[in-house]
From TrEMBL:
Record protein name field: Glutamine--fructose-6-phosphate aminotransferase [isomerizing]
Record EC number: 2.6.1.16
High-level lineage: Bacteria, Bacillati, Actinomycetota, Actinomycetes, Micrococcales
Function: Catalyzes the first step in hexosamine metabolism, converting fructose-6P into glucosamine-6P using glutamine as a nitrogen source.
Keywords linked to the UniProt accession: Aminotransferase, Cytoplasm, Glutamine amidotransferase, Repeat, Transferase
Species of the source: Gulosibacter bifidus
Length: 372
């Protein structure tokens, strides 16, 4: 009913505005004196996190992209290889698992059959399993060795939004916890990261202010036949997630690419007028990605692409090269994806709305796929 939607036209519209609470509620009670407490992990044993030598993340759909996003930070912070696999691929290829492998499953519903079967497979083959889940007592957390719940609140719209940012939040907390246990970051480094982490809900609210401008763009683009998304580093899975959202609810062909792959194929798709979202990192990070992305933008622009950029507010170095820019507040490298994804969620919502589609119940899709 309209009341359940809290005055919004759709659950998805409401849930996008709940991104800040999804993050703050997932952080709540888990940060103490500049350190992470995740007492639900104690069951894995005192030295467990020093003994593991790899992490494999399994998930489907949007949850997979949250894993792909967080893997960059977990590897950097905790000094452990993190590989990802779609749950339905994992179990049919004799995956490499030992008793030193931690298998992390990501699932909003906790009922996705492919993910559940992959968790069972991992346990049978000697790995410990950690469930990151948004649904208390669901099948996947019940069948896992340990669980860290996301506290996004119930998600009703088929297309996942706030559960995505809550999953990244839980994975980041886990990554920092791991860094504490493995002594791969100093306590000052961890405290600084946690300070920045806690500013993210407020920064997300600032991004939500871009809603009306994105809505205008989406209504203008209602006839688009194809939209491309480009990003590098954590911007890459965000590009994939942005494209998935558009396919799911607006039925528009959309593809995400790692921007560095452009010259290896996708640039052939660029013709005059082709809309391309580009996820632009902050120019302040000392990783040299920003100039690379700017040169990618110049390459596609020279071929007529319409560039829609998600940038750090005030990034004047990119503005001359883009057609539209949506601004996010500055934050440190690994927290950027939590902000950059929001304009893409809003864009899909508004494009679907502009086409008069059922935003919450897209054709052919289910909120939770409980069959293989
Ligand atoms: C379905 C939904 C997606 C979701 C995926 C995984 O395909 O339509 O929105 O990302 O399942 O769901 P889970 O509940 O395991 O996160």
């Amino acid at each position: 009913s309209a009341a359940d939607k809290g005055g919004w036209d759709s659950f998805m519209a409401k849930e996008i505005t709940e991104n800040p609470e999804a993050v703050s509620n997932t952080l709540m009670g888990r940060i103490q004196d500049g350190a992470v407490t995740l007492s639900s992990l104690d069951v894995l044993g005192e030295n467990y996190f020093r003994e593991i030598d790899r992490i494999t993340v399994i998930a489907c759909g949007t949850a997979f992209y949250s894993g792909q996003t967080a893997a960059y930070a977990i590897e950097r912070w905790a000094g452990i290889p993190v590989t990802l696999e779609l749950a339905h691929e994992f179990r049919y290829r004799t995956p490499f698992i030992t008793d030193r492998t931690l298998v992390i499953s990501l699932s909003q519903s906790g009922e996705t059959m492919d993910t559940l079967m992959a968790v069972r497979y991992a346990r049978e083959h000697g790995a410990k399993t950690l469930s990151i889940c948004n649904t208390q007592g669901a099948s996947i957390p019940r069948e896992s060795d340990a669980v860290v719940y996301t506290h996004a609140g119930p998600e009703v719209a088929v297309a996942s939004t706030k559960a995505f940012t809550a999953q990244i939040t839980a994975l980041y907390l886990f990554g920092l916890y791991l860094a504490q246990e493995r002594s791969t970051l100093s306590s000052d480094e961890i405290a600084d990261l946690l300070d920045e982490f806690q500013t993210i809900p407020e920064k997300m609210r600032a991004v939500l202010e871009e809603h009306d401008r994105i809505k205008e763009l989406a209504h203008w683009m209602a006839d688009a036949r194809s939209v491309l998304y480009l990003g590098r580093s954590t911007g890459f899975p965000i590009a994939l997630e942005g494209a998935l959202k558009l396919k799911e609810i607006a039925y528009i062909h959309a593809e995400g690419f790692a921007a560095g792959e452009l010259k290896h194929g996708p640039i052939a798709l660029i013709e005059p007028g082709q809309p391309v979202f580009v996820i632009v990192p902050s120019p302040r990070h000392d990783d040299s990605l920003h100039p690379k992305i700017v040169s990618n933008i110049q390459e596609i622009r020279a071929r007529g692409a319409r560039v829609l950029a998600v940038i750090e507010g005030g990034d004047a170095t990119v503005l001359p090269y883009v057609d539209e820019a949506f601004a996010c507040p500055p934050t440190s490298e690994f927290f950027e994806p939590l902000l950059r994804v929001i304009p893409l969620q809003i864009f899909a919502l508004e494009l679907s709305t502009a086409k008069g589609l059922d935003v919450d119940q897209p054709r052919n899709l289910a909120k939770s796929v409980t069959v293989e």
